[in-house]
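Researcher: I need the complex structure. Ligand is uridine-5'-diphosphate. Inputs:
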Amino acid sequence: MILVTGGAGYIGSHNVIALIDAGYDVVIFDNLELGHIETVETLKTVQTKGKVVAFIKGDLQKPQDINAVFERYKIDAVVHFAAYSQVAESVKNPRKYYYNNVYGTLNLLDAMLEHDVKKIVFSSTAATYGEPEYVPIDEKHPQIPVNTYGKTKLMIESIMDDYDNAYGLKSVRLRYFNVAGADSQNRVGEWHEPETHLIPNILKSTFSGGKTFQMFGDDYPTKDGTCVRDYINVEDLAKAHVLALKYLSNGGETNYFNLGTTEGSSVKEVFSSCEAVTGKKIPLEVKSRREGDPAKLIADNNKAKKELGWIPEKSLVESIKTAYCWEKNLSGNI
Ligand code: UDP
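Model: Output:
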């Protein structure tokens, strides 16, 4: 049985589907603060080929909650998503982030060690690299995070190294670039309240009563003045986690990989693609830069390709199409 913390959230829910498709039994652990019970209900109805999808509501900041999962189920490995992930909020309220992300993970690792579970796939981030010194960013790039969110993820990576040295806990840390899109069968998707991400925000502006889309800065030193990001499809991303689990099951050592496409798209390009996919003229307002946004983040993904056998397949347009179907669901505009 695989324990998925944060399985009711955006990336976690797509991973639960990928794990079920790969034939694993899954137990989801989520406090439903940011995840949704509707998502859990949907995941329980996903075609399971006789596999178990269980749910336990609980909080990683309460050791008894997470210990109870290991008491009840025989866990073989953990995929750990549960975390706060908003950069601006992390800078304003670091306590919230250190307690939830770092202390919560320590409780999870304690429970794992107490129950002799020694394999974990961890949801890390390109934010651990900080301001890029070069692009594309490979795994050798210095990790100097510039915000609390990135610092919490880097601390956890470093805790995992120490836990491997001391206790033999094997981890794979997956450093995500910009995750985009939704389930191609429209069962789950991105559902944040409030939404801060680019693609859902552009798409929300297409609905009647939607706000004008705000573009944060068009004076960056990039091809068209707007920030360039590497948008990785959420289903492609989920597949990498299944490969990482297999890697660990086959005796793989602690490791870390970038998950991105190596393609950079500017905010203006994403905006134009959204107009093309939706066939709508989207209201746009150019605002000043958002604090802490680097001009350009692009992944070098060769390591994941070579060592995990991972091949990202879906284009930005495919991500926008599935995200649009999902947004129509959410807004009731089907
Ligand atoms: N962005 C924007 N308007 C929005 C949301 C995001 O212009 O409503 C820009 C943001 O400044 C950044 C890019 O889109 O340059 C991607 O932002 P997002 O929050 O999706 O991901 P991040 O790169 O911060 O992880």
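Model: Summary of the prediction. Residues 199 and 270 are 7 Å apart (CA to CA).
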